[in-house]
Amino acid sequence: MIFKNTKTRSKHPGSIAVVNYKGGVGKTTATALIGCFLAEKGCKVLLIDIDPQCSLSASLKADNEDISSKTNNIYELLHPQQWDKIGKTRISDFIVNLNQQRSPNYPENLFLIDGSFHLDDLDLDLAQQIGRKKEKFKIELFMFLRQFLYKLKEYDFILVDCPPNKMFLTQGLVRASSYYLPVTIPDKLSTFGIPRLIRWIEEIKPKEDRPLMAGYLLNCINRSKGGMLRSQSEYALSLQKMIIEILNPDEVNVIGGAPCIGEIPELDKVARFLSGESWQWPNYLGDSFSQQPSVKECLSVITSNLKSRIKKYEKQ
Asked: Which one of 49, 69, 118, 198 is at 20 to 30 Å from 164 when CA atoms are compared?
């Protein structure tokens, strides 16, 4: 089996699962914007879309017909029939160079593995296999996904856009990643599942298999007179307190008392970016309106904090 020696393999050092049990909170927004910014600054970045809605693929200029008809997608790559062939698979055949194949406005170092509307079917296949083989198959799934990500070590960062669920593929890729990044809007419904998500990750055994929290990201921030709206500020502070109480001491030692790595403002420019409209990176997101910092300024803070957290973990 391909998993024979995987216990001695490292995880991909720049793999990050972007997660939240709640939909509509900005996971795709964060994945796309952070990926674009890191690539613009010279990092080689791979984005992976594992949400059956394929919002990341669509926002990066793949239309429904293309997603429906394309065979070199994440479904074909990660299906159990592929597992024994992964050593011989040309993963590059499944990877889109966004600058060359979608739009010259994308950074040259930005790549994507397209999603698939059939990922729901894949999870049903995984559930059936787990029902027959139980824990053994779940271990094989994780080992395969960890090896899959590790084979992509030419990329400085891999950002996995996860769906709002804890289905088996989501569980496997979160566990196979080195880090996870919860994204949320600071309100009651959006933050409700974050503690449960963190507790599940904290219970993963063995401890070495757990991804580390890179921090969390706040989306759709509104400001009045330069500061965050009071209602959002209250939920942001409450979330920060909850996360610090749940995380293990080693992670708190790195994250400190400020686990949030940054904020993305609620601006029309972000919505237009995700709608697939014509735009130019990075000037398109460089302007500031209504006392909000520009998206470009926010991404500079976010990516700087993200890199700093990873370096701190590496020194532990």
From this structure: 69
Burial class (CB in 10 A: 0-12, 13-18, 19+), 46: buried
pLDDT tens for each residue of 112-163 = 999 999 898 888 888 887 777 677 778 888 888 999 999 999 999 999 999 9
pLDDT tens-place string over residues 7-66? 334 899 999 999 999 999 999 999 999 999 999 999 999 999 999 999 999 888 766 667
Q: Are 268 and 294 in contact (CB under 8 A)?
A: no
Dihedral over Cα of 10, 13, 14, 18: its sign: positive
| CATH architecture of structural domain 6-315 | 3-Layer(aba) Sandwich (3.40)
CB atoms within 10 A of CB 106: 23
Question: Tokens 């992509």 label which residue?
Answer: 152
3 state DSSP class of 63 = coil
Residues 6+ apart with CB under 8 A from 83: 2, 140, 144
Give pLDDT, residue 129. 78
3-state SS assignment for residue 58: helix
| pLDDT at residue 8, rounded to an integer | 35
Strands (DSSP E) contained in the chain are 15-19, 45-49, 95-97, 110-113, 157-161, 179-184, 212-213, 216-221, 223-224, 227-228, 260-265
How far is it, in rounded angstroms, from Cα 181 to Cα 178?
A: 10
Strand partners, 132: none
